[in-house]
Specification:
With 111 residues, the protein is mainly α. The chain has helices spanning 2-11, 20-32, 41-50, 56-62, 70-87, 90-95, 100-109. It is 67% helix and 0% strand. The longest helix has 18 residues, at 70-87.
């Protein structure tokens, strides 16, 4: 799974790959290479909640979500995902590789 891959990368104890965006992007890249399964909303929400200074949590708060704990984060992530799923065309979803990684990227860019 994506989360198991994230933990595996971190547990290698390679400086620069144990936390933050490098760890996240490495797990994302392994997913895009189909080495890892895509992240679930729960898994990516757990990561986002544990990294509040990297953008997604701030963007959700700016949108009006109250992020009190990981379950609030997961609910907010699922709401944003469902909204985009309902309004994006199938062509756009395919073009943008729509999924939780896309959702995380959008939230971190605060657009």
């Amino acid at each position: 799974s994506w989360l198991a891959g994230l933990h595996w990368i971190r547990d290698l104890n390679i400086p620069g790959f144990m936390s933050g965006l490098t760890l996240l992007q490495t797990a994302h890249n392994l997913t895009l290479l189909q080495i890892l399964e895509p992240p679930t909303a729960e898994a990516i929400s757990t990561w986002m909640y544990g990294n509040p200074k990297l953008g997604a949590q701030w963007a959700l708060t700016k949108m009006g979500f109250k992020i009190h704990d990981g379950k609030f984060m997961e609910a907010a992530v699922k709401i944003v995902y469902k909204h985009m799923d309902g309004y994006m065309t199938e062509e756009d979803k395919e073009l943008m590789a729509f999924g939780q990684i896309f959702n995380e990227h959008i939230l971190c860019k605060d657009i």
